[in-house]
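User: Show me an example of a complex going from sequences to structure tokens.

Assistant: Sure. Here are the input components:
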Amino acid sequence: MRSSEHGLYDVSKSNSAEQAITEAMLQASSPKLTPMRMLILAIVAAIYWASIQGTEISLNDIITGMPAIFDLLSQMFPPDWGYLKELLPRVIETLQIGIIATIIASILSLPLAFLAAKNVSPHPLIYIPIRFFLTVCRGVSEIIWALLFVVAVGLGPFAGVIALIIYCVGVIGKLLAEAVEAVDPGPLEAMEAAGASRWKVFLYGAWPQVLPLYLSYCLYYWDHNTRQAVVLGFVGAGGVGYALFFNISTYYFEKAMMAMIVLILMIVIIDRFCLFLRQRII
Amino acid sequence: MTDAVAAGMFDAVMEQRRASRRQVLIIGSIIIVLGLWSAWGAEFNLAKLAMGMPAFFDLFARMMPPDLSVIPGLMGPMIETLEMALLGTTIPIFFALPLAFLCAVNTSPYPVVSVFARLLVGAFRTVPELIWAMVLVTAVGLGPFPGVIALTLHSIGGLGKFYYEAIESTDPGIIEAMEAAGASRFKVIWFGIMPNVLPVMMSSTLFYWEYNNRASTVLGLVGAGGIGLALTHALQDFRYQEVITCLILIVLILVVIDRISAFLRARII
């Protein structure tokens, strides 16, 4: 022990002390196994085991599937750069679907959200059905809505726009209703006490508190809608997704790769742009 | 004197209001122009909407009443959907967690590693799970298995981002204090960072579980199994009463999942 010879602290001692502390911390951080917890653990393990069986997961399949994946990848290269010219109108269409859907959904969701908020809704008979309506709207994903609307109004971007609007109204409506319910009642009461009309209480009391959240939801869902607009193409609702789907199902993998590259670029740019806008607003 | 000050303040406030009104006007008109351009491009107009409405109500009428006799047959695909979502959320945790520690600037061994790990996470997140599923179905064949991998790949990106943001928001004081006390890198992560970020991580994992449940209901559209496949078949064969049963089941199960997730989240935080 050189350090103790020099009159410094004892290294071995401090090491063992540190070890003891580590062990104590480990013990404190690992929960005790009570019978209840063991039961829950067993149930969870059983669920996972059933899931692994049910979804036919096997490491073997991954390994045997690997050559097929690499084969597919090799067929995708080099991407067909000439296809870019044909893709651009599709990309613009996807962007347009995302923009118009977000604008209309954000307008529609506004009154619905206020009617669905417990504290400003005029009557429970109004807010309960509207809540239910919003739940149904966001209950199934956009793609399923698009699938139904493609059947109803035919192929094309129109079906995609309606699908996005319905889902988006459901989500923004719900989030906004929650934001309205969380509004600080103090200013509202003060304004009412000062004799402001109901409309003024809303406009100058509640609205400024909700506005930043509303804008950030709209921005977030613009980003989301553009992403989804891509996928909606899979069910025939137009845009760059349709090009991708068509090319994969007809085995034009080089063109599909080009579509994927364009798509990823588009999503990244929108992501960045939204981040920039959000930072400016909030 | 005070009147002059008050008047000045009033002017300043009014000027500010005018400026903000101008800004709102400019942004508003940009949005309106964008909206009109998009409505034109996406073939969206009210006439078309009005024309489409009867068709939609007709479709809805043909869905009534729901065919409840198919429910036993749908239970299998429904469970498959839930299983895909569960595994598609659990498996990515094991990949996203180490990746997140490489991504986060305060735990990454080198800045270069952080940049590359972020690129990797971003790439996984950018591709929607449906596209992953379609590519994988083409490569390894139909069934729930490519669905699980598709959800896993997308969730690695999504969870990875949530995780590294949580890690980066850890109070640097804790890390510095532990480092000053001579704790090893592993101990700093295990005893300093993990207890701090665990609730946030669990909550974002729950969020992704909800998200994956929703996503796995549609993976069937590209042949990756689950209730989506049953729905697509019913739609293709014009069995609309079966379609509505599928839809009701999907809504019900997603509401239940939301509730479970909210319950678990309330217990964690």
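The lines above are the inputs; the final block is the predicted structure for all two components together. The CA atoms of residues 72 and 219 of chain B lie 21 Å apart.
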